[in-house]
Amino acid sequence: MSGLLTRYQALIAAGELHPDAEQAAAGARLAHLQEQLENPPTPGLFARLRGQHPPPPHGVYLWGGVGRGKSMLMDLFHDTLAIAEKRRAHFHAFMLDVHARLREARKSEAGDPIPPVAAGIAKDLRVLAFDEMVVNNSADAMIMSRLFTALIRDHGIAVVTTSNRAPDQLYKDGLNREHFLPFIALIEADFEVLALNGPQDYRLERLGGIAAWHTPLGEAATAQVREAFFRLTDYRPEDAANVPSAELDLGGGRMLHVPKSLKGVAVFSFKRLCGEARGAADYLAIAHAYHTVIVVGVPLLGAEMRNETARFVTLIDTLYEHKVKLFATAAAAPQDLYPAGGGGNGSGRFEFERSISRLIEMQSADYLALGHGQG
After folding, report:
1. Pick from 196, 225, 244: which residue ends a domain?
2. Residue 347 in this model has a pLDDT that exceeds 60
């Protein structure tokens, strides 16, 4: 039995994991890929004379809802793979590195920069393991097909990746998506696609009772949502200064800076989301890209903050409709966030009642257990 399967079964025996048929099947497939990588076939004499190499084994694309064990299986795969030529990376960090390499290549190369960049990445490498493949900007979408075709078919790199989305849902409704479709075709041809949508949400369990809404504003509330972020992303608190950021493509050439972005979790300030001129399309892009949004610094709302309140209502409607988990630090509980007095019937309090209802529901265990985008 492989080291991966031994470790996996030990986790079940210890009660840290629950028996899950889809998880077990994915673990077996990853163990098979390990065997192929650790004991590659030897090419025949004529193939060696012609410089031919055996084709790489098919990659694995693991997708499913939040907390279903995708990252855990990825860690087991990488940790127990007995070869040195391996690399595990968060997909967002990998693409930032790719774009930096492309900029350098364009300075020194007159032709297409993708082949030399792919060659540089593939040097002394046989397998790439990615956590959380998500595509939310056109710059990534435009190059991924050609880059990964070169890595897989020209350089023989096996790729293993996790994602919250099925392949055909990647970059859905994205700008110039037609340029991205060949990448989806590459996944379908060169990867084994496995779904992990079992009943157990381990990430939700790891929250350990941390509430979703924290008042009043202050260090205690901030500490709670910070802890939720670490538990949802498996990030270590001692690495807090190095949490990656992101640039979210809003379409039309507009980008939104996401101060903290990791494993489908985004952190924003209320001022960033609702204090600036934003519309429903911006919030829709956020809801598509992230399964969990943390908003810090929600103030008391009301008629004197009419624009900010209207944007907040639109934000909550959009997150609710796409079943995005919401954690927040706020000046008051949802039912007290928009004081009833001081504005009369035209103050907007009546219109805010729906948002109060939704904010209360979004804190419930039933809502938090729903999958991203699940109606």
Report:
1. 196
2. no
Q: CB neighbours (10 Å) of residue 66?
A: 21
Poorest-pLDDT segment among 18-22, 108-112, 319-323, 355-359: 108-112
* Residue 107 structural domain: 3-196
Look up residue 198 and give its two tokens.
């079992």
Q: Are residues 362 and 221 in the same domain?
A: yes
Counting residues of the chain whose pLDDT is more than 70, the rounded percentage is 89
Closest residue by Cα to residue 5 from 46, 45, 33 = 33
Q: Which residue has the tokens 């934003």?
A: 278
Bridging pattern class, strands 158-163 and 59-64: parallel
Please state the separation of Cα 200 from the chain's center in Å.
Answer: 19
pLDDT mean across residues, the chain: 86
153 lies in the same domain as 17: yes
pLDDT at 346 (0 to 100): 41
Return the H-helix or E-strand segment holding 356.
Answer: helix 349-361
